[in-house]
């Protein structure tokens, strides 16, 4: 909520749409808010980091917690990597390298 607008990205779908013209907000609500996707975003693609912040008036330093959520392309890349890892660990004929 406190990040500058430039840090926000559209949520795009890896699949093609029928007519190729779907508003980005609709894509986000269809994809990101699917129950399974939303749970994965919260559980596996959200981190909290501590960051020092200096008060410009007093010069005092304080620690603030920053929430960072993966962008759509990071989410899809992680999901693909996890699936490939699972597949490789269950591959009885391959070299099982991940």
Give a verbal description of the structure.
The chain is α+β, with helices and mostly antiparallel strands. It is 37% helix and 18% strand. It has a domain at 5-69. The protein has a two-stranded antiparallel sheet. The relative contact order is 0.12. It has helices spanning 24-31, 35-44, 72-89; strands at residues 46-54, 61-69. It has three helices and two strands. It is flat and about 65 Å long.
Q: How many beta-strand runs?
A: 2
Radius of gyration: 19 Å
Q: Averaging pLDDT over every residue, what do you get? A: 80
Question: CA-to-CA gap between the ends?
Answer: 37 Å
The total count of helices amounts to: 3
Largest sheet: 2 strands, antiparallel
Q: Given the helix and strand composition, which structural class is it? A: alpha+beta
Secondary-structure element pattern, one letter each: HHEEH
As laid out across the biggest beta sheet, the strand order is 1-2
* Overall 3D shape: flat
Helical amount: 25-40%
Range of strand content? 15-25%
Low-confidence stretches: none
In a few lines, what is going on in this structure?
The chain is of the alpha+beta class and 98 residues long. Helices cover 37% and strands 18% of the residues. It has three helices and two strands; from the N terminus they run H-H-E-E-H.
Relevant terms:
alpha+beta, 18% strand, flat
Task: Note the topology.
Elements lengths: L23 H8 L3 H10 L1 E9 L6 E9 L2 H18 L9
Antiparallel strand pairs: 1-2
């Amino acid at each position: 909520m406190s990040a500058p607008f430039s840090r926000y990205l559209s949520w795009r779908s890896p699949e093609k749409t029928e007519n190729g013209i779907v508003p980005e907000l609709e894509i986000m609500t269809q994809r990101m808010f699917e129950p399974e996707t939303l749970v994965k975003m919260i559980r596996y693609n959200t981190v909290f980091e501590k960051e020092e912040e200096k008060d410009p008036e007093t010069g005092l330093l304080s620690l603030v917690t920053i929430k960072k959520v993966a962008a759509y392309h990071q989410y899809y890349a992680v999901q693909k990597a996890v699936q490939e890892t699972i597949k490789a660990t269950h591959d009885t004929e391959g070299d099982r390298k991940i």
